[in-house]
Amino acid sequence: MSDITADMRVSQYKELLRIRRTEEILAEEYRKGTMRTPTHFGIGQEAVAVGVCGGLNLGDVVYTHHRSHTHYLAKGGSPFGLIAELLGREGGCSRGRGGSVHLVDRSVGFLGSSPVLGHSLALATGSALAFKMDNKPSIAVAFFGEGAFDEGSAWESLNYAATWKLPVMFVCENNLYATESPLSVRQPEGTSFCERANAFKVKSQRVDGNDVDAVFGSVKSTIDACRSGAGPVLLECMTYRWREHVGPLWDYEANRTFRPKAELESWMEKCPVKRSGGKLISMGISQQSDLDSWRADINDEIENILQNAYDSPWPDPSTLFENI
């Protein structure tokens, strides 16, 4: 996109890389058994979060699902807050009480993640209704996987949002699998979620979810209309998670065959981080030495944050019943 400046492209690349390295380092730590929270990694899907959140304001709010780390960090969440939370520390964004799937940080408009399938659509629709009633120029965003379209609450949310022209953006991360069930066995051949959304008069668009430019461009071209009263929009972002459904392993490590290794490798060729970095080089904005330097700096940053999180205090048992 011509309206993306060189500085913005560099910023996007660094954000993609920071999220990638945070999750990779967490996956390495998870294997050591130091974390007790079920953890769903979004490695491979970072461009959706960075592209969408790059078009949001601080006053906009985000709800998301169990694979929540990418959205939390892209919305401005603290890497320390995430890592400390997974380690159960008081300094975690949910004070060590929520773990990986219950992240909350109101200071950056990240109102929560949950493993309940389809919940983010309903909650974002509720926030959008509040914004409209209060005449606030804010929007709500719901991130969810394509498996949420198996839930009636998803379609009820689209219908309600369209009826009242609410300022809500529905962002489907279509990674083709719900846990271990491929989309092909859950929906009829030729299913188009965008066509279904159009039936509710929700404007929709399918984009390459591994191309941060494509995602950001779609958000920028629709968000102003959504914010100004034109009603909800749906972005279906085609992407793919690299790791197992829950945990740090590769599926082939555990001898799982439902996602062939060749399929994974074909999607790894579309790596959003490499694609973003490749554009920086091809456009003459940066050199490979710049990318290598940024990676080293970010790696040191996250490693230091990890150690600080380990060194931070556990919650005081006397606070166990607070906020219940």
Give the secondary structure arrangement, pairings included.
Blueprint: H1 6-30, H2 46-53, E1 61-64, H3 69-74, H4 79-86, E2 110-113, H5 119-133, E3 140-145, H6 152-163, E4 168-174, E5 177-178, E6 181-182, H7 193-199, E7 203-208, H8 212-230, E8 233-238, H9 261-268, H10 272-282, H11 288-311
Parallel strand pairs: 1-2, 1-3, 3-4, 4-8, 7-8
Antiparallel strand pairs: 5-6
Helix pairs in contact: 1-2, 1-10, 1-11, 2-8, 4-11, 5-6
The radius of gyration computed from the alpha-carbon positions, rounded to a whole number of angstroms, is 19 Å
CATH architectural designation: 3-Layer(aba) Sandwich
Distance between the termini: 47 Å
Task: Provide the spatial order of strands within the biggest beta sheet.
Answer: 2-1-3-4-8-7
- Count of alpha and pi helical runs: 11
pLDDT under 50 segments (min length 5)? none
How much of the residues is beta strand, in percent?
5-15%
The helix-strand sequence is HHEHHEHEHEEEHEHEHHH
- Which term fits the overall shape? globular
Average predicted local confidence, pLDDT: 95
- CATH first level: which class? Alpha Beta
Structural class: alpha/beta
Domain module count? 1
What is the strand tally?
8
Helix content: 40-55%
| CATH homologous superfamily identity | Thiamin diphosphate (ThDP)-binding fold, Pyr/PP domains
The CATH topology corresponds to Rossmann fold
Largest sheet: 6 strands, parallel
